[in-house]
Design a protein that fits this description.
Layout: E1 4-7, E2 20-23, E3 54-58, E4 65-69, E5 73-78, E6 83-89, E7 96-101, E8 108-110, E9 114-119, E10 130-135, E11 141-145, E12 154-157, E13 161-165, E14 171-176, E15 182-186, E16 200-203, E17 207-212, E18 215-220, E19 228-233, E20 238-243, E21 247-255, E22 266-274, E23 281-285, E24 291-298, E25 303-309, E26 314-320, E27 327-333, E28 335-341, E29 345-350, E30 353-358
């Protein structure tokens, strides 16, 4: 059980008479600021000023990760109690633990009803991996045994299956939601040589798209056995990826073009490529170096959002499609790398907190 934390009722400020000491695991509690965590957090509505991020959940000594947002709640994984799935409403109220278990990895995939984790075995003990499924409404859990050990990988929940890609897109497995049947395939060609980057998955009705190391792949869902098509090969690591109905978008970290800064300097670039293939096009170059985190596309606003990270601090950036000007919408944050969105807000993980930020109105 988690320790005792300060919690505030909706609309109350920390330190007011409405605050009281309650268990952070009690159902339907109101959350406030844990001791030692900087920043204001109450159940009051977030600031209407997009320049003012609002801490909606303070997580004490844990490091929240792996965000998911639906119409009512924000969900995240927490390390405060082994590994747990927690939720709060979008103003930070009703901070509660839904499920917890021993072992596993923090990144998860979610669909309309369930959240899925890859539970990895102890390397010394051997054993196979599990896909752990949690019903977000009831907390009911079910484990699906896999035929092998997958010590790392990325999950993607589609309409009828949960996909697991090993690191660098070397193999793929599909867990059917209806019956738990598992199909696994080795993919060819293999990933690009050399380490770097991360495995990121997006999908549409026909294909799964995977960015890993220095390549972007597509895999047709109808082809059996599955084979990869290399859509793009880079000389430099590829980070987050997003998609709309016709194009893919990703972040590369490499030498900046000479026209932007001295060629021995490194920077981030945003690229796009038609899903059907072709030549990747650079959309914009960021004027500061750093490694990209998750990449989001707001299709209605025609805007990309992503996290620029380095060892000192992180920024949240935006690029309206049709523009070459990267906009800073939050600077010098202690971001953990996860980011999610709804119509009006961005949600992101910081050290010991879940924070939300109203999306600014940007024009190309």
């Amino acid at each position: 059980m988690l320790g005792v934390a300060l919690v505030c009722c909706c609309g109350a400020s920390l330190g007011s008479s409405a605050c009281e000491s309650k268990s952070a695991d009690a159902p339907d509690t109101r959350t406030g600021k844990d001791a030692g965590v900087a920043g204001s957090a109450s159940c009051a509505a977030a600031s209407a000023d997009f320049r003012t991020p609002t801490v909606i959940v303070a997580e004490g000594n844990s490091n929240p990760s792996a965000l998911y947002v639906d119409d009512q709640y924000v969900y995240w994984s927490s390390t405060a109690d082994n590994l747990s799935l927690r939720r709060a409403d979008k103003n930070g109220c009703e901070n509660r633990k839904i499920a917890a278990w021993q072992g596993g990895s923090q990144p998860f995939a979610s669909d309309a009803s369930f959240t899925y984790w890859l539970a990895t075995p102890d390397a010394a003990a051997g054993g196979n991996s599990l896909i752990h499924r949690v019903d977000r409404k009831t907390g009911a859990a079910r484990d699906f045994a896999l035929p092998a050990a997958h010590l790392s990988g990325s999950l993607l929940a589609s309409d009828d299956a949960v996909m697991l890609y090993d690191l660098e897109c070397l193999s793929v497995g599909q867990l059917a939601k209806a019956d738990g049947n598992w199909q696994g395939f080795s993919l060819v060609p293999p990933a690009a040589p050399g380490a770097g980057g991360e495995t990121v998955l997006v999908s549409d009705a026909s294909n799964i798209y995977c960015s890993s190391a220095k390549r972007v792949y597509s895999v047709a869902k109808s082809a059996q056995p599955w084979r990869t098509t290399v859509l793009h090969t880079s000389d430099y690591p590829i980070r987050g990826m997003a998609a709309d109905s016709s194009s893919l978008y990703w972040v590369e970290h490499g030498p900046a073009p000479a026209e932007f800064r001295p060629p021995d300097q490194w920077a981030q670039s945003i690229y796009t490529l038609p899903k059907a293939g072709g030549v990747a096009q650079r959309l914009a170059v960021l004027d500061r170096a750093g490694f990209g985190g998750a990449l989001l596309l707001d299709a209605a606003r025609r805007t990309l959002y992503w996290i620029r990270q380095n060892s000192a601090h992180s920024d949240i950036l935006a690029l309206p499609l049709g523009s070459t000007e990267v906009r800073y919408i939050a600077r010098d944050r202690n971001l953990r790398g996860a980011i999610a969105q709804d119509t009006d807000y961005l949600y992101f993980t910081e050290d010991h907190a879940i924070t939300k930020l109203r999306k600014p109105e940007l024009s190309p």
